């Protein structure tokens, strides 16, 4: 037990009637749902960065959290932070965690020193993972915080930054592979532009596409069996980002011949910033064959930026997991809590309670989604709405516009209700 979490015991499932704020009321890892354990459906992961790196600042104020490992600018402090992280993983009983390189080690004076420190902390992680710690859901590289990336990483106008980016991703992929990570994520935090006045759009897209091709080639070269994931994100912090949403990413992948090699890691908060719902982005990923993993959080609907709050809406979670289940469930992906405390929530207990609450919301959502599928509650009405298409051959090879136009003679189609309110009422019965 670390001093930071002193006195906090492992969270247990106590059932819906429990009033214990540090116990699960709905998340029962061994509960069977659609023939699979709940834990294996949800595949929970903790985001190392928000839980152990973020200091509580916002655009108008600095640090509010006081953690014994801050500022984690030495390897000893980085290891102390790792001790606390793996202690929290144990308390929550999560099967996975995720990290950026910048989260887990202090940046060195040189590229070589940064890479060496990353490998040192990977050694430290290996001992903890072997001692019953969680597995690695995915690793990624932070290529947005350092000022060298102010004009992008792979899209940077300076080829030296492109090379530095390549070396950074290679090192992170190597460590992810060594730690048996199940995915590798690319999040283009600065891959976009502030103004077209100084931007060569075609060149930057070509750089980004070629870089991703090299990432995929390197995956196969080292024998990494996990998935390569892109995390779509709209206009924050830049005015426009090239990986705006799932549909945009699909077009990008098709352009560079990568649609069969790369999937998406969809975040709820990013979906909202793009003007979509979470279930829309997941349905799009499923439809386009890109579904990989999810970052579970939410945004404040009254704020226009990425607030990364823990989920608290069962209806939203239910509709999200409905799409996950329709996609066949997670394979290499999972549910990563890319969420952070509010800057006034100062205590270690707050960090535990936030994750417990989020895990319970996801569990409730999963159970509602599974029941809706089992009862054919939404799929039945949906099939009925499109049933007429089973009786025609309009989309068959050889059909022509003028041929179908001729068959329309004498038809008088009448509108049929979409019954949206009835379907909303059905969903509300399950949640």
Automatic annotation (TrEMBL):
Cytoplasm found in the keyword field: yes
Active site (UniProt): 100, 103
Database matches in NCBIfam families: PRK05474.1, xylose_isom_A
Descriptive protein name: Xylose isomerase
Family as reported in the entry's similarity comment: Belongs to the xylose isomerase family.
Ligand binding (Mg(2+) 1): 231, 267, 295, 338
Domain of life of the native organism: Bacteria
Chain's gene name: xylA
Cofactor stoichiometry and binding remark: Binds 2 magnesium ions per subunit.
EC numbers: 5.3.1.5
Catalytic activity reported: alpha-D-xylose = alpha-D-xylulofuranose
N-terminal signal peptide: none
UniProt cross-references to InterPro entries, sorted A to Z: Xyl_isomerase-like_sf, Xylose_isom_bac, Xylose_isomerase
Key words, A-Z: Carbohydrate metabolism, Cytoplasm, Isomerase, Magnesium, Metal-binding, Xylose metabolism
GO function terms (MF aspect): magnesium ion binding; xylose isomerase activity
PROSITE patterns per the UniProt record, alphabetical: XYLOSE_ISOMERASE
């Amino acid at each position: 037990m670390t001093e930071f979490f002193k006195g906090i015991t492992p969270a247990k499932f106590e059932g819906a009637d429990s009033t214990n704020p540090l116990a699960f009321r709905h998340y029962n890892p061994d509960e069977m749902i659609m023939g699979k354990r709940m834990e294996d459906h949800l595949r929970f992961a903790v985001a190392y960065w928000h839980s152990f790196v973020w200091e509580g600042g916002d655009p108008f104020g600095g640090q509010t959290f006081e953690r014994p490992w801050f500022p984690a600018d030495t390897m000893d402090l980085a290891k102390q932070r790792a001790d606390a992280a793996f202690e929290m993983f144990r308390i929550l009983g999560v099967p996975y965690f995720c990290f950026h390189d910048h989260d887990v080690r202090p940046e060195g004076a040189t590229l070589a020193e940064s890479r060496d420190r990353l490998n040192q902390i990977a050694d430290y992680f290996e001992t903890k993972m072997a001692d019953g710690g969680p597995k690695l859901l995915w690793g990624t590289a932070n290529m947005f915080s350092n000022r060298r990336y102010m004009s992008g990483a792979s899209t940077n106008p300076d080829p030296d930054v492109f090379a530095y980016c390549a070396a950074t991703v290679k090192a992170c992929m190597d460590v992810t592979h060594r730690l048996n990570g199940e995915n590798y994520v690319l999040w283009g935090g600065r891959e976009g532009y502030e103004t077209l006045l100084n931007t060569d759009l075609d060149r930057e897209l070509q750089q980004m596409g070629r870089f991703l091709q090299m990432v995929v080639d390197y995956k196969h070269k080292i024998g990494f069996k996990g998935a390569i994931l892109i995390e779509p994100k709209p206009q924050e912090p830049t005015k426009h980002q090239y990986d705006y949403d799932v549909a945009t990413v699909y077009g990008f992948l098709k352009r560079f011949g990568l649609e069969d090699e790369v999937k998406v890691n969809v975040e709820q908060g990013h979906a909202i910033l793009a003007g979509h719902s979470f279930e829309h982005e997941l349905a799009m990923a499923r439809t386009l064959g890109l579904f990989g993993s999810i970052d579970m959080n939410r945004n404040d609907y009254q704020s226009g930026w990425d607030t990364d709050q823990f989920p608290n809406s069962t209806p939203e979670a239910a509709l999200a997991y409905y799409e996950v289940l329709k996609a066949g469930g997670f394979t290499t992906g999972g549910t990563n809590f890319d969420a952070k405390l509010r800057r006034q929530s100062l205590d270690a207990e707050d960090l535990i309670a936030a994750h417990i609450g989020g895990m319970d919301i996801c569990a409730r959502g999963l159970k509602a989604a599974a029941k809706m599928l089992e009862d054919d509650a939404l799929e039945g009405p949906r099939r009925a709405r499109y049933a007429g298409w089973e009786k025609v051959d309009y989309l068959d090879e050889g059909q022509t516009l003028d041929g179908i136009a001729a068959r329309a003679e004498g038809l008088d189609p009448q509108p049929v209700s979409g019954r949206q309110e009835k379907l909303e009422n059905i969903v509300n019965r399950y949640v």
